[in-house]
Amino acid sequence: MAKFDRIIAILVYEGIPSAHDFLVDAFGFAPGGVQRNPDGVAVHGEVRAGDLLIWLHRVDPEHNLGSPRLQSVASGGLVVHTDDVDAHWAHARQHGARVESEPQDQPYGQREYGARDTEGHRWWFASPLK
Prior knowledge:
8 strands, 2 helices, alpha/beta, 4-stranded mixed sheet
């Protein structure tokens, strides 16, 4: 069996620059920048959460890549562990995150809350229960 060294999450956005700024400001990810084509159109962005790299991909009808903004349901999401989920929730709310569930202790050993970003991607932030 092959050994895996890392996974890069890819999320599709209509507005890569605004998504990048939101993910940095509201969720506290480290900025990775936005790349533009020669016409100045944003075609790629990146943010980091610890060792996790998240690529922000452009909407691309040719490859059937669309933003969840265009759909009424989400087919997945990301869970990110943080050292203080309650402080993270307060910060995210203050910076415009659409909170779907407040921090709650879960029977599977973590305290978590759910939110959506500016285009409807689902996020859960969690801390292990002591």
